[in-house]
Amino acid sequence: MRRLLTRFGVLINALAWTAAPTPGQEGREVSIAEGYVTAEDGTRLFYKTIGDGPQQIVVPVGLFLEDALRPLASDDRRLVFYDPRGRGRSDSPDTLRISLDHQISDVEAIRSRLGIERMALIGWSGLGMEMVVYAMRHPDRVSRIVQVAPVAPRNTPHNERAYAERASRIDQEAAARLEERRAAGEFAGDPAGDCRAQAALNRVASFADPEHAAEVPDVCGYPNERAENLGPLFRALMGSFGDYDWRDELESLDVPRLVIHGADDAFPVEGSREWVEGHVSARLIVLEDAGHFPFIERPEAFFPAVDAFLDGEWPPEAEALSSGG
């Protein structure tokens, strides 16, 4: 029986229970389940669902987002969070099985194994680009997309500029001291401590107000999130992107898209404008006083906008952009 379930990639050891109410849901029970879906190549992908409503919303990198985006839960929705391969609680395959194509195939595995016919997608950061690529390949499976602080639809020149900007925001003297501590063996036998020290140094670059960096979940307890594992993963994944440019293919995609970008994000807002310019089915919100985590820094603006969009309405502040606008 166990082999049969594994063959079809179905949850084997699912856990379900009643959770504490999410904000705004006091007095009612919220269904939560978690387990693993098996991808085509045998890689197990961890997932967690919140709620059991008819609207299906799939969100990758649950290790960062499942608590942060929980306010989106409602009676009408089921939020499906999952960790991509090699991240968080999912299996870590060899780097030959880390690529954009594998990422897209894994979204399809999550959808099909969990019995989802059509879904909304919320993609943050690099996944903001990847979810659109999935939609371009499977447009009949996607009802709408929220792109949160997405990387640009083309690699050049935006990403090089973003990496340079991020580097400029990091305290280089503190970085040098951390390297000295690492070289002296301070973190020998303590990879989680090394991960936390690096996160404390680097994460401030993602915020308009560095005080908010402390609100990012501590994921260093997962071996996948440590530098010795993340480095090879990102090199393989980003190497598979190449010098990409999705703008021509984007022309044929008519799935509604809401793009939300922090004005102080190291990733340039010009990239998010390119996701929207000239597309009647896409609109942009730029949030002041926010960086790469707008749901942390500007929740009072972020959540009403996303709620409205998921309910089929354009938020009033969402801007349509003409070509070149």
Question: Which tags fit this structure?
Answer:
325 residues, alpha/beta, Rossmann fold, 2 domains, 9-stranded mixed sheet, 12 helices, 35% helix, 18% strand, disordered N terminus
Layout: helices, strands, pairs:
Blueprint: H1 2-7, E1 15-19, E2 30-38, E3 44-50, E4 55-60, H2 62-65, E5 77-82, H3 100-113, E6 119-124, H4 126-137, E7 142-148, H5 158-168, H6 172-183, H7 191-202, H8 227-241, H9 247-250, E8 257-262, H10 269-276, E9 282-287, H11 294-297, H12 299-310
Helix pairs in contact: 3-4, 6-7
What is the CATH homologous superfamily assignment of the largest domain? Answer: Alpha/Beta hydrolase fold, catalytic domain
Helix count from the secondary structure assignment:
12
Structural Rg:
20 Å
Can you tell me the residue ranges where pLDDT is under 50 for at least 5 consecutive residues?
1-27
Overall mean pLDDT? 91
Overall number of strands: 9
Please identify, by name, the CATH architecture of the largest domain.
Answer: 3-Layer(aba) Sandwich
- Strand coverage percent: 15-25%
- SSE sequence, one letter per element: HEEEEHEHEHEHHHHHEHEHH
Distance between the termini: 58 Å
CATH structural fold name of the largest domain:
Rossmann fold
**How many distinct domains?**
2
